[in-house]
Specification:
Helix content: 10-25%
Order of helices and strands: EEEEEEHEEHEE
Oligomer: single chain
Number of strands: 10
Strand order of the largest sheet: 1-9-10-5-6
Radius of gyration: 14 Å
Largest sheet: 5 strands, mixed
Number of helices: 2
Structural class: mainly beta
């Protein structure tokens, strides 16, 4: 049986920093304009509704095994594509990861912004 990633949602304090529960590293800090991303060895991904800012090699491989392509741009942005169809939205795509004891923090900005950001962690990402 495939175990999906666990999910924690933030709707009120979506702008707080996100720290790794396994090592304490501050992985995401929100600035005035952009997110500052500093992945630790437990970080599976850092994403938002417009795409991925970071994806671990292990998470990228899981997507490739499902027929998706993972490309890394010169600007560091990650592009996910499907060879035979449409790629699910970032929220649904990050919900579909399957790693033991993994969890995802989903933070949603209240309207009128309405954007979501997603950060995933697992205890054994690096091997």
């Amino acid at each position: 049986m495939r175990k999906s990633i666990q999910r924690v949602e933030r709707t009120k304090h979506y702008d707080l920093a996100i720290c790794c529960a396994y090592c304490g590293t501050k992985v995401v800090t929100a600035g005035d304009e952009d997110l500052a991303v500093h992945p630790c060895p437990h970080t599976l991904f850092v994403a938002h509704d417009e795409g991925f800012e970071y994806i671990s090699p292990l998470a990228a491989e899981q997507l490739r095994q499902r027929g998706l392509t993972v490309e890394f741009g010169e600007d560091g942005f990650v592009q996910i594509n499907a060879n035979d169809g449409e790629v699910p939205g970032t929220d649904a795509l990050t919900d579909s990861f399957s790693f033991p004891d993994a969890f995802k923090i989903a933070a949603y900005v209240a309207p009128p912004g309405g954007m979501g950001s997603y950060v995933g962690f697992a205890p054994n990402v690096d091997g």
